[in-house]
Amino acid sequence: MTNVQWTIRGREFVNCNCAYGCPCQFNALPTHGDCKAVAAFDIVEGHHDKTRLDGLKAVAVLAWPGAIHEGKGEALIIVDERADPEQRAPLLRIASGQYTEPGAIGWQVFSTTLTKVHDPVFAAIEFEVDVDARKARLKVPGFIETRGEPIRNPVTSAEHRVRIDLPHGFEYSLAEMGRGWSKTLGPIKLDLSDSYGQFANLYLCQSGIVH
């Protein structure tokens, strides 16, 4: 349990190396045996106790040699350089799974599977995401370039819409499925192409998803 109160309303885009749909969402093993991902979120409205977090962004670059639950993962967290000193520490703690009840949200669950967490980076984050349209663009100069798009029918090229509904999930309640491309530099180098993309509206607190 934690006595710290925080809440975040926002939007996210996640691009991982799995096939569309991502077996992890169904308690199955990852498509290629390992897990690599870029996850970005934009806080529309949020607070950490009395500290406001509205308008800030953060990104995580993650890699595991096998399935996430098998551990031995590593992570790099990038925090919006616009955050002032009072905002940086709590935003970093939340994204690192701290001040959160065990098992309550994905950030806390993933933190228990990491053996290496690189020093955080504070940088300019350009992030735009439209959940309903399944489109996203992420750029952190010198670190990340990512884009997200709708899945398309291989015959007609028409946009294909599919969602995953997780009534008891710890990442989101409902997510739009799409696809993404990511290239990263820095301590965790990834090159993802036309793989799983996840677009979701977030409403989280220290106790889990707010329904």
Cα end-to-end separation: 20 Å
Strand proportion, as a percent range, falls in over 45%
Low-confidence stretches are none
Annotation field: number of helices: 2
Question: How can the largest sheet be summarized?
Answer: 14 strands, mixed
Silhouette: globular
Indicate the structural class. Answer: mainly beta
Average pLDDT over all residues: 96
Cα-atom radius of gyration: 16 Å
Describe this structure in words.
This protein is mainly β. Helices cover 8% and strands 48% of the residues. The chain has one domain (6-209). It contains two helices and 16 strands. The strands form two sheets. Strands 1, 2, 3, 4, 5, 6, 7, 8, 9, 10, 13, 14, 15 and 16 form a 14-stranded mixed sheet that branches. Strands 11-12 form a two-stranded antiparallel ribbon. The two termini are 20 Å apart.
Keywords:
single chain, 211 residues, mainly beta, 14-stranded mixed sheet, two-stranded antiparallel ribbon, 8% helix, 48% strand, globular
Topology at a glance:
Blueprint: E1 6-16, E2 35-48, E3 51-52, E4 57-64, E5 73-80, H1 85-95, H2 106-111, E6 114-117, E7 121-123, E8 126-130, E9 135-140, E10 144-149, E11 151-152, E12 159-160, E13 163-165, E14 174-184, E15 191-205, E16 208-209
Parallel strand pairs: 5-6, 5-7
Antiparallel strand pairs: 1-2, 1-15, 2-3, 2-4, 4-5, 8-9, 9-10, 10-14, 11-12, 13-14, 14-15, 15-16
